[in-house]
Amino acid sequence: MMKFKNPESTDLHFFKTIYQPKFFNGNIDLAHLLHIFQDLSGDHVEALGLGEEFKKLNQFFYVVMRMKGYFLGEIHEGETYTMVTYPLQASGIQMYRYGYILNSKDEPVFMLSTLWILMDSVTRRIKSTKVFKNRLAEVLPDIDSVLPLNDETLENFSIDEYDFKHVKDYQVVKEDIDSNGHLNNTIYLKMSQPLLQNERIHNFEIDFEKECFLDEKLTLSLAKSGETYIIRGDKEDQSLSFKVKINA
Fold first, then answer.
1. Most buried of 3, 7, 185, 217 (most Cβ within 10 A)?
2. Beta strand pairing status for 108-120 and 126-127?
C-alpha cells in the first residue's frame, strides 16, 4: 500500500529537500535526480547519528545494490518540488530506503525504491546490518510503524534473453570517484541515459553488480525490445559491472 506525506521538518523518520528538476533530451535528468536523492540520504543518516563518525567507528560504508524508479505524474521544467526520503528497519545483510517527489499540491509524481548493504571499509566485504539496525532503533524506536511505499522487493532482473550491441566505451576519471573510492552511483545513469532515443521515460531499474575504480574502462552495450531499453556495462575482464532497464 502506497503512503506519501509531506513531513514536518522536525520528523526525523523522514527527511526532505527542495527539488528543482533538470532535463536531458526531453526527459528528467536521471543522474541529477539520483544525485539529489543521494545527498538527501546522506544528510538524513548524519541527522540520525548514522553518518561519517558512526561509519568510521564501525568500519563500514553504505553501498546501494539496486534501485527502481517510477514516474507517477508530470514533472515540469521551472517548477519546484519536494523530495522526501526515509529508511526502513534493516534485516540480515540488507536494508531498504525509499524516496518520492511531491508537487505543489503534495501529489506524488515520482517514487524510488533502493536496496542497500553495508560494506566493510577494509576488506570490502558485506557486513551485517546489526550495528545500523540497533542504532536506528535507539533514535527512532517506532521506525517499524513507517510503511513502505509498496510491498515490492527489488529482485535481480535477467538480461540473458537480450541481444546486445556495443555502443561505446567509458573511461572512469577522477571526478567520477566518490568518498567510498569507487565510481559514484550517479555516473551509471549519466552514461546510460544518452544512449536512449527521445522517448518519455516511465520507469527504470538499476542493478549494481561490481564496483568500478579510477582508470577502469567500461564497455557499454545496448539492447531494445519494444519500448524497453537495456544497457549493460562490462569491465575489461568481461565481468558485468552494472545493468539498467528503462521502459519508455
1. 185
2. antiparallel
> What architecture does CATH give domain 165-247?
Roll (3.10)
Domains 15-145 and 165-247 share a fold: yes
Task: Flag whether the pTM goes above 0.85.
Answer: yes
Contacts of 69 (CB under 8 A, 6+ apart): 30, 33, 110, 111, 112, 113, 203, 204, 205
In the chain, DSSP finds a helix count (H) and a strand count (E) of 4, 13
pLDDT, tens only, 154-198: 999 999 999 999 999 999 999 999 988 899 999 999 999 999 877
Share of the chain above pLDDT 90, in %: 85
Alpha-carbon span 75 to 73, nearest angstrom: 7
Retrieve residue 133's grid coordinates: 539496525
Contacts of 46 (CB under 8 A, 6+ apart): 52
| Structure confidence at residue 2 (pLDDT) | 63
Distance, CA of 104 to CA of 73 (rounded, Å): 12
H/E element holding 67? strand 60-71
Q: Is 226 left (phi over 0), alpha (psi -120 to 50) or beta?
A: left
Q: Which DSSP symbol is given to 194?
A: G
- Domain ranges (residues) in the chain: 15-145, 165-247
Burial class (CB in 10 A: 0-12, 13-18, 19+), 166: exposed
Instruction: Kindly report the length of the chain.
Output: 248
